[in-house]
Design brief:
Length: about 325
């Protein structure tokens, strides 16, 4: 069993490229490497430059390779489809021109992946984590969203050979049990896989072990988070925007929260999961001074459980 641990810019608070408080992308790469990571995600579209020579040189200088790119955008609005397809072209072009990470025996699809996330909608953000309160899409809007996902995934696969993985996310319209089940019924495994996230599952009232087991055949990639139980109880007891909850510290370093990583590791061994797992810890970028310490602690904890860091590989 080979499970490689990577990092992501959201650990430094990088979610919205228009946020004026984001740390420089060069700092994120530098601190990820200092923490001991050898794999990293690109972060949201537009954070790292799309210039393959510039990014490739920076990655190489820090001993890093890219495990995934991300489209974190509105997957619902039909008027946004052209923008989504443009991002798909740009990201897949970059991903396929960078040095590749190794593929473990038994890994479903080769990295790098394109992670597809419906962004946080205002009407869902204050009820993130509350399946009984959150509005759902109408049947027509749901069908449109599934059509958008299929168009993106088909383009990435057929034009670039990149596997799209869909990430259920708190505050988006693919978050809760019923929405994940509808998603896997409506999007075939030939079109796209899943990237389940332990923290988002727990935040949205799902047990990560149960849901990883349930959809093991569809999972091509995983995200690991942990949740501070006290902060989580506080934000669930009052209307709190999802990203405001993150700024309050609801996400914490792996091993310091409520999630049972002994059970998660045992399950992944049982399932013979092969491939990549990325550590994430959403936060306010104004608190990024603590990112290096936190991502180092997360990696140290996971390595102690038997997970490995990414090994570099170039073709």
């Amino acid at each position: 069993m080979t499970m490689y641990i990577a990092s992501a810019p959201c650990c430094w608070g990088v979610e919205d490229v228009n946020n004026p408080h984001l740390p420089p992308w060069e700092r994120v790469l530098s601190e990820a490497a200092q923490a001991g990571y050898r794999g990293i995600e690109l972060g949201p579209y537009g954070y790292l430059p799309l210039d393959v020579d510039r990014v490739g040189t920076a990655l190489d200088g820090h001993g890093l390779s890219v495990v995934a790119g991300t489209i974190f955008d509105d997957l619902v609005d039909p008027a946004n489809l052209a923008n989504l397809l443009r991002q798909t072209h740009d990201l897949c072009d970059l991903l396929t021109r960078l040095p590749r990470l190794p593929t473990a025996p038994g890994q479903h699809f080769a990295a790098p992946y394109l992670v597809l996330i419906d962004h946080v909608h205002a009407e869902r953000s204050l009820v993130a984590g509350h399946p009984d309160r959150a509005p759902r899409l109408s049947p027509e809007r749901w069908r449109q969203t599934m059509a958008h996902i299929e168009a993106i995934a088909t383009l990435a696969r057929d034009r670039y050979g990149v596997r799209v993985v869909i990430h259920p996310h708190a505050g988006g319209y693919i978050e809760f049990e019923d929405e994940i089940e509808r998603l896997v019924a409506d999007i075939s495994a030939e079109v796209a896989g899943l990237c389940l996230d332990t923290g988002h599952l727990y935040y949205s009232k799902m047990d990560p072990v149960t849901w990883i087991r349930r959809h093991a055949g569809r999972i091509d990639y995983l995200h690991f988070k942990d949740i501070d139980s006290q902060v989580y109880a506080e934000v669930m007891a009052e209307p709190v925007d999802f990203f405001a909850a993150c700024a309050r510290g609801v996400m914490c370093p792996i091993g310091r929260g409520v999630l049972d990583y002994d059970a998660i590791y045992a399950l992944l061994r049982e399932l013979d999961y092969q491939g990549y797992i990325t550590v994430e810890q959403e936060r306010d970028p104004r608190n990024a001074a603590g990112s290096l310490q936190d991502v180092t602690a997360s990696l140290t904890f996971l390595q102690g459980k038997g997970f490995a860091g990414c090994d570099r590989h170039s073709d």
